[in-house]
Each structure stands twice: as C-alpha cells, then as structure tokens.
Task: structure prediction
Amino acid sequence: MTDHTKDNLEKIKKHLQEVLELDQNIDYNQEEAEKHLREFLELDQDADYCKEDAMIFDNMGVIYSEMGDLEEAMKYHQKALKIFRELDHREGEAITLNNIGLIYQTKGDLENALKYHEEALKISQEEGDKEGKADELGNIALIFKAKGDLKNALRYLQEALKIFREIDHKEGEEIALSNIGFIYQEKGDLENALKYLKDALNIIDKYKFTYGRDVIQNEINSIMNDLEEN
Result:
C-alpha cells in the first residue's frame, strides 16, 4: 500500500468514525456512512485491521439493523467479530456477539439468539464486566419470555436487576423493573406487576428518562382498572 493510499485510508476512517458518532441525524449517518464505507473497503483490502476498523464494521451493522436490512447488518457484524477475535479484544467480541444475538431475536431465531447472547454473557463474566453481564442476562430473559418460559425469564431478570442496582445503573434498573412487571402481568399476577411497573415509572420520572414512559403509564392504568373491577 502506497503512502498516498494510506493517507487516504486514514482520512476516510477518521471521517467515517465522525459520521458514526453523529447521532443527531440518523439519515445523514446512514447516507454518509455507506458512501465512506465503500471507499474504506476499496482501499483497505490489504491493510491489517485494528480495533477501530472492527468498531466501524460493528457500528455499520447497527446502522443496517436500524434500516431493517438484517442480512447486510449480519455481514458487518460477522466481519467485526472475526477481527475482534483475531485481536483477542474480548470487550469488542462480547459487544458484537450481543449485536448478532439481537439480529437473530428480531428474525425470530431464538435458538441462535440464545447461543450468541450466552457467548457474550460468558465473556462478560470472565472479564468482570458487570454492566455487560446484566445486559446479557436481560437479553436472555427476553428470549425465554418469547419462548413462553416465564419462570426462567423472571430468574434472569431478577439477577440482572440485582447487578444494575449494585452498580447504580438507573436506566438498566428501570428496564429490568419494567420487564419484570410485564412478565407478572402476563402471568396474571397484577399486584406484583403494578409494584414493579410503578417502581420503573418512579425512576423514569426522577431521572427524566422519556423512552417507554407512555407504555408503562398505560399499562399501570390498565392494571389499576382491572384490579378495581375485581
């Protein structure tokens, strides 16, 4: 690779990383990222990949997932996973395994989803990554819920909730609480469902989170109406 090509490659990589960080405008992210990724791939054929390259590929996978192109997303995540493993970058490997698991969840392939999330969970445990461990426990719980195994879903969510509280991760705590509430609601245990959903709503209001608030409030109202009727 010539020095001129190397310079161009570094400029493209830098610009692509900047594009991927521009969360304010997702349309710009997608259009610009695709354009510069094509240039990046054309120039980077003979280059030795590094951690930043793998992160770019993984982020591109996330963008394609958001666009609904799961097959293209999977290609980029698998490329990122290969690089992270070659570099023995365990954190990146776990994040990418998680993203692949999420794609399989979206596709309804629960067995493969479980496989990848369990691999990510194992790495998080080995690396002492408590937040990553709690995230994966929550993801695995949702797979069990989708399979109709509410007992195991609750078990994994309770473990995730405990860790989120230990590390004072309020957003994770709120998500775990709300998912536990939804499972109790599905089981017909409305009093426990109401308790957990109210706890989740309290965190949302206290820390001014917005995502999911309307859904939780509506479910609380519905449960309260059901309890009053009974």
In short: Residues 154-230 form a domain with the Serine Threonine Protein Phosphatase 5, Tetratricopeptide repeat fold (CATH 1.25.40.10).
